[in-house]
Batch of 2 targets.
Target 1
Amino acid sequence: MPTTARGVIARTPGAPARVEEFTIGDPGPNEVLVRILASGVCHTDLGVKQGTYGSSGFPFLLGHEGCGIVEAVGEGVETPQVGDRVILAWRAPCGECRFCLVGQPNLCAASLNAEKRMRAADGQTLNPVLGIGTFCTHTLVHAAQAIPIAPDLPPGQMSLIGCGVMTGVGAALYSAGVRPGTSAAVFGCGGVGDSVIQGARLAGATTIIAVDIDPRKLEWARGFGATHTVNAREGDPVARIKELTGGNGVNYSFEAVGRPETLEQALFCRDLAGTCVFIGVPGPGPTLQLDLQRLFDLGGNLRVSWYGDCLPTRDFPLLAAWYRQGQLKLDDLVTRTIGLDETEEAFAAMERGETLRSVIVLSSDQ
Ligand SMILES: NC(=O)c1ccc[n+]([C@@H]2O[C@H](COP(=O)([O-])OP(=O)(O)OC[C@H]3O[C@@H](n4cnc5c(N)ncnc54)[C@H](O)[C@@H]3O)[C@@H](O)[C@H]2O)c1
Ligand SMILES: [Zn+2]
Ligand SMILES: [Zn+2]
């Protein structure tokens, strides 16, 4: 029997997204129905709502950073099982595409998703953001997108592993491969950037420079492991990073804003042969002109990182374990907990820079 659910639906680019009732068809083969317990509000959802990211696809069921409980499974599903607590992954490698076949599942070009079985009250098919949709009471995903974790871990904190935390920690560990004793600079200290800082700390970097334009974000960044902070509004951040690194620049730089000027700064604050990792989503339009000889003279490399090059089946349980051991700080990323009907306010708070993450917590009567 179809499930009646409630969720935050964006119908037109730029217009407010509202809570609506919708229906979910029964899980088909290899699909699972998940009751959402908590969902983080990532900046990418704001881009989707504004029509600057994945613009062809309205109406969207927003949200892609979620933790929940499996309520029903379709034919052939062995893992997860009904009752399992799961974190949802927006990349579930297919095992068969040209990347999976050569051992690069982090680049999977045919990530597994459920069939589109979610319909608004007016009959329109809903497009769940990044194939998940988590600002809702229930959602339908491919079984491979639902990664089991221990049932006693807090859903709000666990939900953040589903995107922002994994992206940031993975960017440091996997995309950059940060080595012990090195230096790193992180541009943009929101939920993603602060997770890069934690990843760099876990990998053993000894100089971690947080760069932001908001003093509050810089203060928070210290709590996640930044050893130095640079306010980019108070002068040239590249010059300041050079000063802090004996004139050399950093071994690794991370762009977690999505703007041309911060990418340029991240490229040119590196030491010789340093690695720059581009994480921020710029949306359509921005371009960047570069001094190519300066780029050549620096050497090194530029990596775009999707989802921190993670493998959710390996990395979600790992990050959950690090949280349990106190090595990965997630409590301080949850700036606010909110209800399903407060997501517009959460986007506004994000734009005002007041939050690292607003987390929607679903109570059983919603
Ligand atoms: N590559 C991926 O797989 C992936 C995954 C998740 C999110 N993202 C993207 O990562 C970016 C960050 O996401 P978030 O949720 O942390 O966003 P956020 O809004 O919480 O954080 C962005 C931060 O950048 C800071 N900032 C703005 N302009 C700046 C400047 N000129 N210099 C330095 N800092 C500046 C802001 O003050 C803020 O602290 C977004 O573009 C998001 O879409 C990418
Ligand atoms: Zn694949
Ligand atoms: Zn995200």
Target 2
Amino acid sequence: MGKKIMVLSGSPRKNGNTNTVVGWFIEGARDAGAVVELIDVASLKSKFNGCIACLGCQKSDKFECAVDDEIKPVLARIPEKDVLVFTTPVYFYGPSAQLKLAMDRMYSLAKFNPHTGEISHPLGHLTLGLISTGGGDVNRGLHIVEQTFSTLATSIGSKLESLLVPFASMYSDDIKHNGELREKAMAFGHKLSVTE
Ligand SMILES: Cc1cc2nc3c(=O)[nH]c(=O)nc-3n(C[C@H](O)[C@H](O)[C@H](O)COP(=O)(O)O)c2cc1C
């Protein structure tokens, strides 16, 4: 049985740069035997505009979000996976709001002890991945996005593997014809399918 990978697609452009690279990644991962679940996070219906900090998740023993909408069952499946891959364009020096919305609600997969500062969670076995595309060079937001996800990885005792794609214009189709990037993205999919 191959690795179980969940890919969270955070770009609203179905056929855009990020999803093009994501498609190649998935091709590489499936070739290597992984079982990939792709979630179009950007089109999931969320009851609220973001996490509303109701803290319902912290009051229960279960690792589940208290808000019942289309994001909740996706979050519930994360602990069953081996690899979780976040994918996003850079939007104003950070991840897209669509991805961040789902990511904030991952708080429900952790129990935070306000007295000791300790966090318990069922995510320590996960490898985290990041695919991010940006219009500028890596200093226009890609490195900050990477830092966000590597901080998350460190805090759950995991590690982050990332594929950053700078100079990805929304005004051309250049990415789609970039054979070198295609190879790189497929190799990245392969790597995350065999990683320990
Ligand atoms: C609202 C918005 C904000 C953006 N902000 C940045 C930015 O801060 N830094 C950057 O390098 N690119 C920025 N870009 C460019 C996109 O990140 C880049 O073109 C990306 O590849 C688009 O991905 P997509 O085709 O998946 O939508 C921005 C684009 C949009 C629409």
